[in-house]
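User: We ran a pulldown and think these components assemble together. Before we commit to crystallization trials, I'd like a predicted model of the whole complex to look at. Sequences follow.
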Amino acid sequence: MKEYELVSGLETHVELSTKTKIFCSCTTQFGSEPNTHCCPICIGLPGTMPKLNRQAVRYAIKAGLATHCTINPIAKMDRKNYVYPDLPKAYQISQYDKPLCSNGYIELKNGRKIRILRIHIEEDAGKLVHERGDTFVDYNRGGVPLIEIVTEPDIRSIDEAIEYVEKLQLIMKYIGVSDVKMQEGSLRCDVNISVREKGSESFGTRTEIKNMNSFAFMQKAMEYEFERQVDLIENGEQVIQETRRFNTDTGETAPMRGKEDAHDYRYFREPDLVTIETSKEEIEEIRASLPELPEQKRQRYIETFGLSEVDADILIKYRKVAEFFDEAAKAVGNPKTVSNFIISQVFRTLPTDAEKEAFDVRITPQSLIELIGLLESKKINMNVAKSTLDKMLQTGKTPDQLIDKNDMGGVDANTLTAICQKVIETQSGAVQDYKNGKEAAFKALIGGVMKETRGKADPMQATEILKSLIG
Amino acid sequence: MMVTKEEILDIALLAKLSVEEDKLDELTKEMMNIIQFADTINAFDGEVQEFDNINSLSNVFREDEVLPSYPREEILKNVGGGENGYFPVKKRM
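Assistant: Here's a predicted model for the assembly, 564 residues in total across the polymer chains.
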């Protein structure tokens, strides 16, 4: 069998977290009683006039700047016509040939850039509910502002597709324009897929899988569709350009629309909305409001703080964790200690992704700084630091409240030297064995020091002192 | 520009209209006349200014402030009060 390569481009819909809908003042709140967030504008009654939400435009520009797009000085809204019950006007107000943002990219770990063709704003459709063969519509979601982010067909594997969406999701979260929750539908992906023989430059016929709302489904749908297309080609059949739906029960994709419903959206300018002009000053003002983006943070953690790529990736994945880390890292000697504590110990108390995301912990950056300060000034050793951190996580107390001042745990150099001297004197047998080359005997001496200090000495320091005393 | 009978049928389908076979020739001719008028405009030779902004108005925005929505009874009035708070949809093909 010949070797085949996947070619994919994504259209990602991201619901913007504005307070109100894109063309009316109804709330965008999620999860309310059906049709309670509606007005004549968002249910498309004749004679109503849409009025564009300024914040939706600003959020879209922000998303464009964060993904290296050019912000177009002149943009306009268009009508996209199609007949479906989730769309009360029988057209969606979207953008066709003059979107807000064009020509950006997201860079993957392997260095490949997935080009973003455009980002445009549009209104979301209502939600259809199917029950016992009947269909009902809830227009609460109708008119919620969306951005659609369209890539070029630059994706070459399922892993790349998923990494792209994860990166996009993280960027949107960092810049605060959306909560990008796939399970709530605030981030949805349409996946375009074609296959071609490896090494070929031309593109095969593509199909589009609609509305992927989880990474697991996206992975399965893409695997299935890739295999299906390869099988067709291998059997001398043709791939038909069509829209397909992924059936989560069977794990298969199936055609969604018949040929007679072929796309013809008859786009034309929305006459009820005027041109959107964006000045250079406005663009720069929005650019200045961007926070440090995940990729920049990652770079800084690796280059300035000397973190490993793996650790940097873990920390930037959760915005609140990264903020906590930054706060603590700037006030300690070695930021790596902060990341080690967070990743190995704090995360143990936050097993799920959602818990890490929320990062609802009983320690503060200040209490962690305090703890690491004690560790770095050798007032306590690593064992004590670790057990104190556990207690801090459980009780919300500070190191100051948890570590007995008179019994700091930490042992200063003079005291430690005296204790080492004492151990050498009482364990002369072990000292002799060590001198005769029995490395294991040294452990007994360290054990003696730890016993004397009730586990609070720094083993590294004790080793140094013992060795210099024994000579 | 020529218009074919197939294109007329396709447009009719998109517009959800049914076209009688014996009307097809006439409709095709009429549509051709309309399209040919556009050809006349296209034949104009000279500087054309793009009119993105026909009424020279731009940036009419609304601030992102929530106002009360309509009572659901009002929203569902045109569908006989709806069903359980929803708009019922007639079965489609």
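Strands of chain B lie at 61-62, 87-89. That may be worth checking against your pulldown data before setting up trials.

User: Thanks, that helps.
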